Structures are given as C-alpha cells and as structure tokens.
Amino acid sequence: MTRGRPHAVRRAAVVAALALAGCSVSPDTEPITGPGFVLVSPFASDANELWRQLVAAEVAAVTALFGSDLPDPPVTVVLDPIDVPESATLTERLGAHAEGPVGDATADWRIRLFVARQGSGLLSVSNEARLRHELAHILLHRRCPRALLWLHEGLAHEVEDSVTTGTGLAFHPAPVRLALARALATESNVSSLWTWERSEQPDRDLESARRALASSFVRFLLEREGTGWPDALPRLAALRPQDDPTLVGAWRTWLDQLDFAALVERGTASPDAAIRRAAAGALIELAENAQIPALGASVGAATDALALGIVSDPACWTSATQYLTVFRAQALSNADVAGLCAPSAPAHVRLAGLAVAARRGAPADAAEVRALREALPAELRSRTLFLRPFLPGLE
C-alpha cells in the first residue's frame, strides 16, 4: 500500500489529465516499453505518453537510489482502472483513495497499480510514491530474495517518502512516522514485528503500527550504514532482531531520544530547496495529526519557533505559513505576530503575518493584501490560494 508526494512530472500530468478527462480517444492495446520497464495500460495514447514519462522517471530514480542497474528482466507496470465513487471528495479523487489496494508488487517483476478511471489515472497526487514503494519491493527482492517483511515494508516506506532533489532521490529528512513509532514501540508490537507475515485480512491497527515501526527500524539501520546502505542490504536482510536484544535496545533508545523538531530544523538547513520544502511540509503533517497523542506532543513552542524562523525562506514559506495560520495562530505571542507584520519584513512574511493576525481577530485591509501579493515573486504569488479564507484581496 502506498501514499504519495508531488513531483514535477506529476504536476504536468495533472494538467494534461484534466484536458484528457473529457476526450474520447481509442485506447492503445500494445504494451509500451522503456528502459527497465514495460507499461500495460488501458488508456489512450496521449495519457499513456504521460504515464510512460512518469514510469521511466521513477524506474530510473529508484534504481539509482539502490545503486542498481535498470531492471533486467524489465519491471511490468500494469494500470488497473477503478471507479472512484461520485461521493468522493476532491482530496480523495486527487489521491485516488478508493476501496481496495492501491498497489501490489510480485516477485516476478510485476507491479499492478489501481488508478482512478477518471482522468486516465493521472489526477492522483500519489502515483510517484506508489510506484517507488512497489519498485523498492522488487529491487530488494532482486538483491535479497529471503528478506523478511519488516525489511521489505520498512525500506519501501522510506523509498516511498523520498524526495526528488537536484542529484536524485534522497530519504525524507523528517518522516512523521518516526514520531509515531516512538509511542508504538511497546514490547508486544516490537516482538510481533520480527514474525510479521502478509495476511489477506490483517488487523488494520496492528498493521499500521507494524509499518511505522518497520520504517523507523529500517531508518535506524540506514542511518548507521550511511551512504553505503545499498551494499549492506544482504547483511541487513540476514539480521534476526529477535535474537539480538542489543540491536533492538539501541534502536529503541534512538527512538526515545528522537527530537522531531531537530530533524525538521536539520532538513530546513539543507542547501537543496526540495529537501527544505519537504522538511517544512512535515510541520503540516504533524499539526494535521496532532489529535494523535504521540504526534500532538511534538507540536509546541519548538515547532512554532522553527516555523517562525523558516517562513522567510521561499522554499518553506507555504508550509510554514499554513502551519502558523491554520494550526498555531492562537498559540503565538503578540511579539511573534508583530515580528511577522513588521513594515521592514519581506512581502511574503508580512502576508503570513496578516493571515495570522486575521485568525486572531484583526481583519486585514484588502488593498494592503493585494499590494503585498503583487510584490511577491511569481512562484509565491501562485501559492496564495490557501490564504483566501483569511485574507480579503486574494480573489
């Protein structure tokens, strides 16, 4: 099962898919071949070209992350369209959150992706992540045929969450599952992780716990190995953690000492804008799920200070502003808000400050909002839609 994050190819695909959704073009019947893959699709040629580009990019990126050659024999990617209910929300449609599995990989180099029939499946924001997840299963099986499920799912989730940078894929700087895993690392959950096997009717809560724990344990192992982790996979696959209490103890200590705000801060200090953007986005995911005690405990003064410190960075502005405005406006001090709204602050910071102030009961002047928006760089100007509920003048 996979969940996703946006990607440049996906953004182009979404725009094109919106146009394709209303067209009736005869579907292709021949498989589409590319470097390391075969694509089997029921859709029309224009949509399939976008799918071909997407699959080619992800196969190349994930194999490079693994330090592997392109798959030979090639991976077969089968698109299986399903009908998304009319009652589905826009978010559900864009995420293709329909009943049933969203992806499945088999040892015979075959990936089956369930995609929404609407828009030729291209409207989903999770296509890249789902492909990465399933490709990780296949590449791990290729190198380590006897790898157990905790390594398969833990590594697949890390790859699924990876960030596209200027030099290729990089592991997410602050995956929220790490904060969740700390609370889930009970003796019973941990002991069940090492004997985890696939089930046709899994206990959903236990399954979610195991995925979070597996991801955190694999992340712990990957950080110990450093950049040489691909070469260490056979050795990691041979581990039997149930027989190594020292290793399990070291992992649980690592989890207990985890400072999530510090992870985000480290990510937002990266020279790569994509890493900084992903790290800032973790603040939103954390705040959105603050009703979960394990995650809510990580939201507070430290993450507020972090968001205030990075809101001036254009790469972090959208997430930091959304975090401060939507989730933390009432928790900030008057001095914090005054600093955001200071006349000397850059236009994008002042705009964030006006939104926070409006949430605290100080309505903004529409003319000032329009002037600030016009002063934004074009890239930021296009990202102000989420502020419309709070600020007049953004129509």
Task: Reconstruct the topology from this structure.
Layout lengths: L7 H13 L11 E3 L2 E4 L4 H21 L9 E8 L7 H6 L7 E4 L3 E7 L10 H17 L5 H12 L2 E3 L2 E3 L6 H8 L2 H7 L10 H22 L3 H9 L7 H12 L3 H9 L4 H16 L4 H4 L4 H10 L3 H14 L6 H8 L5 H13 L6 H10 L2 H4 L14
Parallel strand pairs: 2-3, 3-5
Antiparallel strand pairs: 1-2, 4-5, 6-7
Helix pairs in contact: 1-2, 2-4, 4-5, 5-8, 6-8, 7-8, 11-12, 11-14, 12-15, 14-15, 15-17, 16-17, 17-18
Structure keywords:
5-stranded mixed beta sheet, 395 residues, 7 strands, disordered N terminus, alpha/beta, two-stranded antiparallel ribbon
Sequence of strands across the biggest β-sheet? 1-2-3-5-4
Total E-strand runs? 7
User: Could you tell me how far the N terminus lies from the C terminus, measured between alpha carbons in angstroms?
Assistant: 38 Å
Number of helices: 19
Radius of gyration: 22 Å
Multimer state: single chain
Enumerate the spans where pLDDT stays under 50 for 5 or more consecutive residues.
1-25, 96-101
Shape: globular
| Helix proportion range | 40-55%
Secondary structural class: alpha/beta
Strand fraction equals: 5-15%
Main β-sheet, in a few words?
Answer: 5 strands, mixed
Order of helices and strands: HEEHEHEEHHEEHHHHHHHHHHHHHH
Mean pLDDT over all positions: 88
